[in-house]
């Protein structure tokens, strides 16, 4: 069990640029979640996958955001035309299944995005 | 609507003191799940405990204990004989519905500093 891995750890980009983050969940975990955390706040749910299917999206996930999990293993989160308000820590989590009430979520260290 | 309130933004104690972190929640569901997570400076959220709405028994795990009171919609967390390694941000979270929804709603967190 190597834990949930997120890359990069930090990303600085200029407003208007596109960025992509990667999350590698714990192997054999079929559920994968993305959360966003801004300074001084708790994490906010963005979306989750069961295997390769994206089953729920928060209204926080605007049209500029897209997440994929093409083979049911790693996932990518892309933000197009970044805005300063996108600056945050993006957290990925995985679980073996059954939702957070059955299986605790295992979180990665996050990707910190700064939009200048 | 579901909501989690952690009124204490920051707490500072001296090592070996006991400290209680407060959590008050709001939900319309009769079935729900409550969680505590720890976020050390490294950023990775660490699961501490999960509690369902039908189990009001208090729980103790080593120096950690949790007091769940449905009458006051509270799920407080006590650390006994605090240690410097307990310094972190602690989040309370809620998941609604039978089996729990996929979404965790987090409070804003309480930053605990334990001084030597």
Largest interface chains and counts: A-B, 28 and 26 residues
Compressed to H and E, one letter per element, the order of chain B equals: EEEEEEEEEEEE
Distance between the termini of chain B: 41 Å
Shape of chain A: globular
Supply Rg of chain B: 14 Å
Q: Assess the beta-strand content of chain A as a share of residues.
A: over 45%
Main sheet characteristics of chain B: 6 strands, mixed
Mean pLDDT over the residues of chain B: 93
- Provide the helix percentage of chain A: under 10%
Q: Could you give the distance between the termini of chain A? A: 36 Å
What's the tally of helices of chain A?
A: 0
The whole-angstrom Rg of chain A is 13 Å
Q: Name the poorly predicted regions of chain A.
A: none
DSSP, total strands of chain A: 11
Structural class of chain A: mainly beta
Q: What profile does the largest beta sheet of chain A have?
A: 7 strands, mixed
Structure, described:
The complex is a heterodimer of chains A (116) and B (116). By secondary structure, chain A is mainly β. Helices cover 0% and strands 48% of the residues of chain A. Chain A is built from no helices and eleven strands. In chain A, strand 4 (31-37) and strand 5 (44-50) form a beta hairpin. Chain A is globular. The model of chain A has no long low-confidence stretch (mean pLDDT 93). With 116 residues, chain B is mostly beta strands. In chain B, the strands form three sheets. In chain B, strands 2, 5, 6, 10, 11 and 12 form a six-stranded mixed β-sheet that branches. A four-stranded antiparallel β-sheet of chain B has the order 3-9-8-7, with no helix packed on it. Chain A binds chain B through residues 3, 31, 33, 40-45, 48, 55-56, 58, 89, 91, 93, 98-102, 104-110, and chain B through 4, 33, 35, 37, 42-47, 50, 52, 91, 93, 95, 99-109.
